[in-house]
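Need tokens for this chain, all 163 residues.
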Amino acid sequence: METATLHTVFAVALSVAYVLLFSLWIKWYREIRLFKNILKGTKGESLEPILIQHFQDMERIATLVSSLERRISKLESKAQRAVSSVGVVRYNAFQEIGGEQSFALALQNELRDGVVINCITGRESVRFFCKPIENGKCEVGLTPEEEAAIELARKWTHPEPSG
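Here are the structure tokens for all 163 residues:
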């Protein structure tokens, strides 16, 4: 091949490369301009401080959520052991005393642990008895009224708040 032909081929290749490079530069410039327009707020201010604040807020919220999850877990654990069900049975302990002045009161948590309190009212005395409940059972002998109070507590559902 002749030198002139080589120069022509080289010039054409260089021109094609220049056109491709120029078209890529135009495309890049348009994308940069579009990106800059996207990062401007409605009043023309930069969105960079807004985005930085947003990410800082997201980190703070993630920390807060983690803290709240730990607190909720602790509260749920405590709530299981708090009194959550009640059963009361009123009765006449003695035939000569009416009005169902005696009562058996069962207080239990979600784990069915708690106590049953029996108050026996007589003409001249009042006696209280307290027996432990573990997993819904009592190792000490129960009266029928105490058993009924424990059963009521087992079936008890939380009343809806009035209002």
